[in-house]
Amino acid sequence: MIGVNTAIFSPSGGSVGIAFDIPAENVRLVVQQLKDKGHVTRGWIGVQIQPVTPTIAEAIGLKNPAGAVVAEVEPTSPAAKAGIETGDVITSVNGEGVADSRDLARKTAAIAPGSATNVGVFRNGQEKTIMVMAGELPARTVEVKAADQGTASEAPSLGVTLAPARSVRAAGDRGVVITEIDPTGRAAESGLQAGDVIIEVGNQAVNTPADVRKMIDEARSQSKRAILLRIKRGDAMSFVGIPVA
Q: How far apart are the first and last CA of the chain?
């Protein structure tokens, strides 16, 4: 058995030979858990992840755009307790390579909660292995909120208009808000949106548009072709690579 059908594509009401299924490996895992426990559990390490794009790989010095970038580590999670950090690229789980963020999600879900898991990471140009005691995936709901906008300062090199987060949001907020974006600029091409909050540029915290421009100028002076931005969109953190050459 290769898989179990979950849906059939049928524009006319009859079968045209196109179907969608769950891989047999996933089905076997679910069936075995239902037989043993009466319910399904999923492994969990407590990280928000995203794919490694070629631009992100260029910005952090990773040879191949593979693995999953840790956009944020949840407090008190197994990953936080083990020492996994924001910005790490998870490259393997128990010795098996991680192709992308979806592959990592599948691999961690298949881990038995409570088991020791060797997680390979790429950090600051070096590979290392971290042992994580996997937990059980908790049930939760996530509410995504739109970011506010306000008075801004232009950053034409990226095609964005920026403003300090504290000037348009609650006092004490960190980062720089994108209030306007040129749809043909580098930022838009890299996936940034108006309302995104830039938290870090090149692993350095930024709080004003001048901070952002300074970090980009420094990257260019060092002949870097791309730079890494850490952004907050709603309640979610992620990384975006921006060409600067």
A: 50
Q: CB within 8 A of 102, min separation 6: which ones?
A: none
Domain at 153-243: CATH architecture? Roll (2.30)
User: Hunting for tokens 């390579």 — which residue is that?
Assistant: 97
Domain boundaries 43-136, CATH class: mainly beta
Measured CA to CA, the distance from residue 188 to residue 174 in angstroms comes to: 22
> Given this chain, do its domains 43-136 and 153-243 carry the same CATH topology?
yes
Please give the pLDDT value at position 98. 94
User: What pLDDT score was predicted for residue 165?
Assistant: 82
Domain boundaries of the chain, sorted by first residue: 43-136, 153-243
DSSP 76: T
For residue 144, the model assigns a pLDDT of 32
Give the tokens for residue 75.
């407090």
pLDDT profile of the chain (245 residues), mean per 10: 60 64 62 61 85 90 92 91 95 94 87 93 94 81 35 60 72 76 82 89 89 88 89 88 82
The single residue listed with the structure tokens 């890299």 is 190
What's the alpha-carbon Rg for the chain, to the nearest Å? 21
DSSP H helices, 10-133, are 24-37, 54-60, 78-82, 101-109
